[in-house]
Specification:
seven-stranded mixed β-sheet, 35% helix, alpha+beta, 256 residues
Length: 256
Amino acid sequence: MADDTRLVGFLSELGVRPGGVLLVHASLSGTGLAPAVVRDALLSALGPQGTLVTPAFTPENSDTSDRHRALTAGLTEQEKAVFRAGMPAFDPDVTPCPAVGALADCVRATPGAVRSAHPQTSFGAIGPRAQELLTGHDPGCHLGERSPLARLYAVNAQILLFRVGFEACSAFHLAEYRMTPPPPMRKYRCVVGGGEWISYEDIVLDDSDFAALGALIPRGLLAEGEFAGKAATLVEMRETVDAAQHQMSGYRWRTA
């Protein structure tokens, strides 16, 4: 059986909804599959009316990201200034997104794909609802109510964690925006077209407890399988975000 046919069967058996909207986080290392093969298998499982969405995040163009701090660790101030001056500006049409994996970059680069406009936390999508879901991503809102995540929640998207765990589940960030009390704010900076630097305020994003939050999702809400030696998990976005919001509101940012 061809690899793509085997994967389509696996996805369908797991419960991917034909005609639905699917947000995918994936690691292809160790599968032996090319990103385009996995993309095409996902599109086949979704069918012609389905829409495939992946993150297309670009922390490389921000000097306030963890990625930037890691890349510049140990540099002198002068070396950091030189590094910053050479950082690539975000261009939604061509800027790659290696930080979120080969599948995401493949989707982003597919002819006809749509990409949202946020210079750090964009999404890529293929399918009939791509434009509807990704247009209007507010540059001042990473992953909240004015981002594609809120629209994915509204249309009852599914989330597929393909050979990655809940630590990669970007939808948990939407729960951060909705938690009570709300999280604190911080400043972000990134470089955009023409080398212009922009700054904006948004919430403090924190994924340090995402794996633990995933472990608290009721098992009845998960569809689980194994592909190429690692787990694949399929969940309904609304139920998952709601559960995470409830958990976060119970312990995050509370004072004694």
